[in-house]
């Protein structure tokens, strides 16, 4: 309970501000999916060719 009291402003901000890191999490999820597809079959070069065009 002491930890919550120490960070009371951060806790209030979490409930009152309209802020989301959903787009960031979506990109992380997409990159992890691409990475998992390449396990055992591909090296870094293929991963780089699949990821970099999507970032542009």
Throw out a few tags for this protein.
elongated; mainly alpha; 56 residues; 75% helix; 4 helices
Write a compact overview of the structure shown.
The protein is mainly alpha-helical and 56 residues long. It has 4 helices and no strands.
Structure classification: mainly alpha
- The residue ranges in which pLDDT falls below 50 over 5 or more consecutive positions are none
Q: Over all CA atoms, what is the radius of gyration?
A: 19 Å
The portion of residues assigned to helices is over 70%
Summarize the helix and strand pattern as letters.
HHHH
Counted beta strands: 0
How would you describe the shape?
A: elongated
Strand content: under 5%
Nearest-integer average pLDDT: 80
For the report, how would you describe the main beta sheet? none
